[in-house]
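Report of the visiting student (M.T.), summer placement. My assignment was to run the structure pipeline on a short list of targets and document each run. The first record concerns Class I SAM-dependent methyltransferase.
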Amino acid sequence: MKQANWNEYLSLQHPWTKRLIGIEQFSKNRNLEQIEREYNQDKYGTLTEFNFTDIELYKRKELELSGLSDNDKIFISLGEQLFETYRGLAFSIYYSTIANIIANYNPERICELGCGYGYNFSYLNKICPEIYGGEYSKNAVILANSIGLNIKEFNFYNLNDYLIIRKKSLVFTCHGVEQLPSAISFISGLYANKENIELVVNFEPTFLTNRTSLIGTLRNRYIEFNDYNRDLITLLMDRDDIDILEYHPDYIGLNPLHPTNIVVWRFK
Ligand SMILES: C[S@@+](CC[C@H](N)C(=O)[O-])C[C@H]1O[C@@H](n2cnc3c(N)ncnc32)[C@H](O)[C@@H]1O
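After the run finished, the structure tokens were exported:
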């Protein structure tokens, strides 16, 4: 990995530079109509055209449709440090971090919420015997079921949907809570089923109130423009019935403007 600098990354060629400094307007309202368009129709709807039988083929097609390959160089961040490296290497660091963190807790079963068609299931299967999930997009659920994955329709905003969580589950999310401007319904849904939940592991970018540097401020603005999650970390920290076992802010950014925080927690 080669060390890089923010000037190289955020030149005027980068579409977000103009937006972040106010030369170009951008705003999104991340409601269910947006999720329907962005995920159900565009991302997963396109993949339903291919009748693959293996998840790896869907992953490969997704990469191909994005116009990237594993040999392309991308920028990634670790904290506020920036590096340039191959996409394939960056993604394997990212997914092995998830697997390593979860494997430390030796879960009996994992429930991924907002899991798409099960992108993460193939490596989670290697560390845990039972993986299941819930997802809003009907097309993603159809894709998942067609390749034998146990994924049900689930909406973070519907309290009853959290009844899918089975006893002794580790609940995992990866850029799923990101899609909720507020995480109130997520925490309430888990709270109502806390007897079934051993642990929660979130790999989620969110607004962080204690960011004061230039990069931190740009990252918070990026969250606001995209209407991504603003309160997961503050909600968790403000509650006295939650134990936070691990918290690694801005741990890794496959998109350096939108880095993933890791938080591992449970109800007391
Ligand atoms: C960035 S993708 C992440 C997918 C998956 N976790 C992964 O790591 O590949 C966000 C996912 O959240 C889902 N999602 C968005 N809003 C949701 C909601 N209200 N309820 C359930 N899933 C939702 C989207 O459809 C999409 O599959």
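The first strand starts at residue 2 and ends at 4. Residues 2-267 form a domain with the Rossmann fold fold (CATH 3.40.50.150). I thank the supervising group for their guidance throughout the placement.
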